[in-house]
Design a protein that fits this description.
Length: about 220
Amino acid sequence: MISLHNVEKAYPSAGGQTFVLRRISLDIAAGEFVTFMAPSGAGKSTLLAVLGMLDGAWTGEYTLHDHQVHKLDNKRRVALHKQYIGFVFQQYHLLDDLTVAENLDVPLSYRDIKKAERQSMVADTLDKFGMVAKKDLYPSQLSGGQQQLVAVARAMIHKPSLILADEPTGNLHSSQAREIMELFTTLNAAGVTIIQVTHSEANAAYGNRIINLKDGWLV
């Protein structure tokens, strides 16, 4: 599903370049639940952003579902992201002036889906995630766990084959974190490939492979 070969990312610095990722070569099969673990600043969130095509300033080769991402322009990368990827951010990234239902509709509004079908998909997702009673609430009216649940639901609503999660439980207490991780496990069992970045060994235990990074290198 994913193949990386010699992927590198660097920032200009007084000494020339400071590398955040160094010679990353990695294969991830469809249906895996993979965890990137590393100290802060080791490059794991940067690597996730590269995989999610949120960062285009890197070198090397990246293939996703037989698409050679490194050869695509930004427009085609955006289209690829929308087709295959759901991204769950640590800070939720919900739109404050939209209700729960309206936040869920946002990724659907970017696609060629009729309004009636979008409304049906939102209703089904609200039911699946147990949020029907909260559909008209705004993010500020929700707890952190509820906001992250909405963020996961938004990432899943267009049925992506790949979920990328950046510290998805970093702001949650233990019971909320467990709820999110159990949801990921259910999605993975249904065939969704999941890649998460986390500091939590408990969260990492939900997956089937742990990949460690140190100073931008795979270790």
